[in-house]
């Protein structure tokens, strides 16, 4: 019914706006998490930054490296930091700004009753 337009989700009057990103800013309280030098699978030494406290979407064509970036590099790095996971993250130089968060929760496509949130 949402696709037909019968139902709508109203856009909030105020939105969360991330702080301005300053390239090369190593300030760990910048409001951004930056993955530098991601080069696993199809990723070719890319740098990417995500605002903290905002819903962020990673999109791209099939095979562009979305899962590699988010699951193989970012999630595995977070789980090693917070939960002493033995999984080895994908190849990257460093991740800046992780001190701005205190846990990681993976929400996947499993039925909602089985999600940790």
Supply database-style keywords:
alpha+beta; 1 helix; 3 strands; globular
Q: Any overview of this molecule?
A:
- The chain has 1 helix and 3 strands; from the N terminus they run ββαβ.
- The protein has one domain (32-114).
- It has 117 residues and is of the alpha+beta class.
- It is globular, with a radius of gyration of 16 Å.
Helix-strand layout with pairing:
Blueprint: E1 32-38, E2 46-51, H1 66-83, E3 94-96
Distance between the termini: 26 Å
Placed side by side, the strands forming the largest sheet appear as: 2-1-3
- Helical stretch count? 1
Structure classification: alpha+beta
Uncertain regions: pLDDT < 50 for 5+ in a row? none
Strand content: 5-15%
Instruction: Round the Cα radius of gyration to an integer and report it.
Output: 16 Å
Order of helices and strands: EEHE
Count of discrete structural domains:
1
Estimate the mean pLDDT confidence.
88
* Count of distinct strands: 3
Give helix % range.
10-25%
User: Which shape, going by the Cα principal axes?
Assistant: globular
Biggest β-sheet strands, sense, barrel: 3 strands, antiparallel
């Amino acid at each position: 019914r949402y696709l037909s337009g019968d139902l709508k989700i109203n856009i909030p009057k105020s939105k969360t706006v991330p702080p301005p990103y300053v390239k090369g800013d190593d300030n760990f309280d910048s409001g951004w998490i930056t993955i530098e030098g991601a080069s696993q699978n199809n990723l070719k030494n890319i740098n990417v930054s995500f605002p903290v406290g905002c819903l962020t979407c990673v999109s791209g064509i099939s095979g562009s490296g979305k899962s590699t970036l988010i699951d193989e590099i970012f999630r595995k790095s977070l789980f090693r930091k917070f939960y002493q996971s033995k999984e080895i993250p994908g190849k990257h130089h460093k991740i800046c700004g992780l001190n701005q968060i205190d846990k990681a929760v993976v929400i996947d496509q499993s039925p909602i009753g089985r999600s940790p949130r």
